Amino acid sequence: MEMLPFILATVFTAATPLLIAALGEHVTERAGVLNLGVEGMMIVGAATGFAAAVLTDSSVFGILAGALAGMALSAVFALMVLVFATNQVATGLALTIMGLGLAGLIGQGFVGQPRAAIPPVKIPLLSEIPVLGKAIFTGDFVFFLSLALIAFVAWGLNRTRFGLLLRAVGESHGSAHALGLPVKRIRLVAILFGGLLAGLAGAYLSLIYTRFWSPGMSAGRGWIALALVVFAGGHVWRLVLGAYLFGGITVAQLHAQAGAIGLPSQFLSALPYLMTIAALLFLSISGRKGAGAAGSLGQPFVPER
Amino acid sequence: MGPERIRLSGITKAFGALKANDHVDLTLHAGEIHALLGENGAGKSTLMKILYGLLRPDSGEIRINGQRVSLPSPQAARAQGIGMVFQHFSLFEDFTALENIAIPLEGRIADAALRAQVEAKARHFGLAIDLDRPVHTLSAGERQRIEILRALMQEPQVLILDEPTSVLTPDEAEALFATLDTLAEEGAGILFISHKLEEVRRLCSRATILRGGKVVAETDPRAVSAAELAALMVGEGVLDLRPAAAHALGEPLLHLDGLSVAPEGVHGVALQDIHLTVQAGEVVAIAGVAGNGQSELYAAISGEGGRVTAGRVTMAGQDVTRRDINARRALGAAFVPEARLGQATLPQGPLSENVILSWHATESLGRWLLDKVRIGEVARTVISRFDVRTPSADPQAAQLSGGNLQKYVVGREIERQPRLMVVDQPSWGVDARAATHIRQTLLDLAAKGAAVLVISQDLDEVMVMADRIAVMHGGNLSAARPVSALSRAEIGLLMTQGESPARGAA
């Protein structure tokens, strides 16, 4: 029982970057834009965040800088797909490749430097509850921010006028344009929000999760976040469930490796990715083709004038 | 006549070299239902998009209630009291009716307050709508009621309807006319875009007729005959169809025996136990409101798609249920799909190369390299025999107008000398002259002994072409009956309610 709060806390720490990045991509995809550059925005957020934290000696400032770096990269994506109406899949892939290179450049000279942990936040009273108190009500501030983001995204999309218009633009940009909705402006907001969160998730990786920078450290988490959005099929609660499930698998494979259960460690490390493929396979063969995805997802929008 | 609501003067809009609107004048008064008539491409939709703020005119003046205005966006048009009901619905499929209504209303969300207002408005105009169902589960008539209600929520002084009855059954159209009459009596001006002359004569007190982007006449449609209106629209007398001389029917060439097909995609329709026979020498038409399984049926007959769960497709006596479109072509079948660009033709390919798409199944077009001479000859023959007007000798498919491209596609298939011809929406979006030409071509083909199956949402087309008519509704197909044994009202009933068991047995 002593181990349980610790294990739960590590599950949450492993899940939080996935959750944050997936929430951002969820909003982007609701607006009808498929941004496959999550991995690239994440790693740039991780490198920039770490560099800024070292240079200013402030992890909080580093996290802010990482989020803004992700948003800056998403602005490039927005320029390409909204103004020049380029193919979203190709542009997103290019963004990932560019992000990986850019992050290596930014992070040069910071490789291997350690960072001290950010002191955890304890919620008064609630953190005294046995087991749960240490697992849920004690954590870094970004973890609590991610919980607030879940509520913000769910409420924003379903209960506000802006959310209604954002979903409308994603469902059918032709109809939205015919009604005079500012399709491109709404999509710009959605793309920038997705970039901000991907950058934040990256900064979380380098400043809170691992507390060091190394090139390629996002290790495909951006792709897992994308798979989570598909898995969620338009429902925020399924996205949250999926993120914590993947966090659990990641931690479980670490413990399984330590416990030496006779399987090669490479296989165990691959487990989260295998689960990603399995989740996507499950979705596509169970005949839910296109279900839950926004109607205009991935199509370039070019109004007649 | 009430006060003047809208005065358009000298509206001009060009797309490149094409003048879609050329100094168009139009005046609309309060309480008036004003028809805007014209062929496809006459500039009706362009004019309405200008009035709704979707397009900016190159020159000309818009006055609303006597004030000169500029309409840079639909919001600006709505603020001036202009509402629009679109031809191709501007609805959001996965959203509920209430959410759809909330979207263009500034500052509103789909909450209880809006629901109360919408319900009150719906009662006032007698529009029955379930506000909580997602739009993709609704019929075309229900969807249009949502569009109208959405426009009415903005208290419009002017309502524009772009070809509102093209997807409606006769009963639904009557209900729409009643709503429009109420609205006009309450002082709104209504612009009614259509090319159905009889309903314009029934509903409208003024008509402005556009041809080639210019106003050619303004008249009272009740004072002139439908033929005169048609002549004004087309310019010269419309060609009439020559009925085929009496001829005997031959062997059955297409036979569907209890065909059931699983639905495709989230919004697909399942086909259930379809029975149909088409004999050599006859034209059978399948009527029905779009989205009742016609696309699925076409795909199942052509072999392009659909997972057959039960039943059989037989062509020329052979079971082809599990065989692909080329095997079916080899048995003498030819297919014209609904989508002209992208399915029937490659948009960027020249007409000669587009010959290959269907001809490769049965003809030798070169062993290693393409026989360019042969396909060029075929394309030239089709172009001259079927009166295809082209901008150059061998243009890209996308350069042809809708009507000419459809003539090319139908001609290309007929040149293969099929024994069975299946055509999905032969004249959708095609001007009247080309539509008549295509229908005549198909009638002549049947007279020469081919079996012809036509799938169409255009009831007029079905009535003039078919020897027998079957109606699709919700994935079911009614029994095919001789056209002489069916009235329009009966077809309308089959379109909305399908076949009752008692009738089917009769």
Which residues of chain A sit in consecutive blocks of at least 5 with pLDDT less than 50? Answer: none
The second-level CATH architecture of the largest domain in chain B is 3-Layer(aba) Sandwich
Per DSSP, what share of the residues of chain A sits in E-state strands of 2 or more residues?
Answer: under 5%
What is the CATH-assigned architecture of chain A? Orthogonal Bundle
Q: Please state the overall shape of chain B, judged from the principal axes of the Cα atoms.
A: globular
Overall average pLDDT of chain A: 87
What is the CA-atom radius of gyration of chain A, in angstroms?
19 Å
Order of strands across the biggest sheet of chain A?
1-2
The amount of helix of chain B comes to 25-40%
* Assigned CATH class of chain A: Mainly Alpha
Q: Biggest interface: chains and residue counts?
A: A-B, 24 and 26 residues
Individual helix count of chain A: 12
Q: Between the first and last Cα atoms of chain A, what is the distance in angstroms?
A: 67 Å
Low-confidence stretches of chain B: 502-506
The beta-strand count of chain B equals 21
Cα-based radius of gyration of chain B, to the nearest Å: 24 Å
Global morphology of chain A? globular
How would you describe this structure to a colleague?
The mean pLDDT of chain A is 87. Chain A has a two-stranded antiparallel ribbon. In chain A, helix 11 runs antiparallel to helix 12. The termini of chain A are far apart. Chain A has a single domain, classed as ABC transporter involved in vitamin B12 uptake, BtuC (Orthogonal Bundle). The longest helix of chain A is centred in the N-terminal third of the chain and has 28 residues. With 305 residues, chain A is mostly helical. Chain A is built from twelve helices and two strands, in the order H-H-H-H-E-H-E-H-H-H-H-H-H-H. With 506 residues, chain B is α/β, with parallel strands linked by helices. Chain B has three domains: 231 residues, P-loop containing nucleotide triphosphate hydrolases (Rossmann fold); 183 residues, P-loop containing nucleotide triphosphate hydrolases (Rossmann fold, 3-Layer(aba) Sandwich), CATH 3.40.50.300; 68 residues, no CATH class. Chain B is 33% helix and 25% strand. Chain B has 18 helices and 21 strands. In chain B, the strands form four sheets. In chain B, strands 13, 16, 17, 18, 19, 20 and 21 form a seven-stranded mixed sheet that branches. In chain B, helix 15 links the parallel strand 17 and strand 18. In chain B, helix 14 runs parallel beside helix 15. The longest helix of chain B is centred in the middle third of the chain and has 16 residues. Chain B is globular.
